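Re: Re: ligand-bound prediction request (bumping)

Still looking for help on this. To restate: I need the protein modeled with coenzyme A bound, output as structure tokens. Inputs repeated here so nobody has to scroll up.
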Amino acid sequence: MRESEALRLQLRQFVAREIETPRLQLRQFKPDDAKELHRIYSHPDSLKYMSNEKPLLWEQTRAVIDSFTEHWKNHNFGVWAIVYKNNQTLIGHCGLKFLANTTEIQIGYLLFKSYWSIGLGTEAASAVLKYGFEIAQLEKIVAIAKPENIASRRVMEKIGMKYEKEAHYYDNDVVYYSIGREAYQLESMRLRFATQKANISSSIPLFLCLG
Ligand SMILES: CC(C)(COP(=O)(O)OP(=O)(O)OC[C@H]1O[C@@H](n2cnc3c(N)ncnc32)[C@H](O)[C@@H]1OP(=O)(O)O)[C@@H](O)C(=O)NCCC(=O)NCCS
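Reply:
Sorry for the wait, this slipped through. Here it is.
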């Protein structure tokens, strides 16, 4: 790779560590986030479907932030803080990390309960998937969930992941989904085409009115 190309890529990766979607800002965690994040991680509903199921202790929340920060230092992917743009509140996390004891990379997400079921999980996850394939240049992204975690499974499906198998990770029976680069590219093309089509058809009545 030429030096200027390498520099451009590095710059792109640095810039992309902040992601903006219509309603969300995905940014790096900072130590100051501990209080807000702890409010989320200590809520029983947030952790119901996670591996240990128990609300986190204060020290554990701080350790999680440290581990996210450390991960970003060593890799060009990691976990972002999710900020709801409307009220500038930290509402959860979403990102990419290694699946336990494997070289596979998993996507994960968690939102504070008041923000569930309005499409924000999907909005964050699709932005992270895009980052994974287009910036971090990953070949495959996987996701796991407890079988009964329907909301999480729906998010996986809505971002184009496919159910692959039942598996066992982090001491839990889980369902395992995945998406490869090629399927991601096809899905992105399909979505772009669908959006263009929607724009064309929504403009038809206007033409009819004018006509
Ligand atoms: C998983 C999580 C991030 C989803 O976030 P979200 O913002 O609510 O997700 P979305 O609104 O984008 O999509 C949720 C989908 O699940 C559906 N859903 C939610 N609960 C459901 C239920 N009990 N039964 C059927 N469908 C359900 C919603 O209707 C929606 O699907 P639709 O758009 O087809 O209607 C959120 O529920 C969460 O933080 N859960 C706790 C942490 C967690 O479980 N993380 C994942 C670990 S694997």
